[in-house]
Amino acid sequence: MDLGYHFLKPMLFVNVSMLDRKKTYLLSWLSAHPLWISQVNVCLPLKFLSPQMWRDFLNTINTAPLPSTKSVSTKLAVQDILGDAVINSAQGLAEAPQEITCFIPFRSPLSFMQSLLWELYELNFCYELYVLDQALIPNHWTASDEVQLACWTLLHSVFPGESGLVMWSESLPCHPHELGLCATDAPTSLPYINRFCQLLSEQPGAPAHLQSPVELKLKGWDDTEVYNVYSLACHFYVQTAFDFLG
Length: 246
Prior knowledge:
Elements: H1 11-14, H2 19-42, H3 51-58, H4 70-82, H5 84-90, H6 98-101, H7 110-136, H8 138-141, H9 145-157, H10 186-201, H11 224-245
């Protein structure tokens, strides 16, 4: 199993204290991320980047011939995995997104950074769910196109937005109703919780309580049952992910 990451970890942004370096990171990621997301959705690469490789990518990568050193070898490996189009976008050979260029001279708006970090957490979670499900139920992901499409549709439905390839082409999340599983009110989060449970329910060792969707009573509804089931699903997912992904 490939131990690399489909997407960079949000902590790569959080741990950067120098403003100029953070701007470089933001430009690199936001310029290239729509293309990289579409590549991952359409045809998963055979390899993914380690945290250090993602850091090299965010610092931008020189595609010109370079001396044969370990550092250069790492950068060439990054280029080989991401592809020239993604690298060129990160280096500014493609137009930088307006949402980042509009505040390049200034401090990054807190709300924008929060949205960006949220999207990265969501993307990483989505593809960790995919890798885990593929490892535990491989026959679902190697079956007919119809079965595979159903698997992808269920996986994408765990998150806010339209299911399918256009899911991640939307704007960065910035409203409470876009929080999905993490919405603070049960009526908003319940559909996502039920689909999360449905996804996990077919995995080996899944608790029986995940087999049936939770329903809210119209009068005097109590969200205790909803969050009890959600807590059960989260515990099962975390333990299973630890066992299989480390």
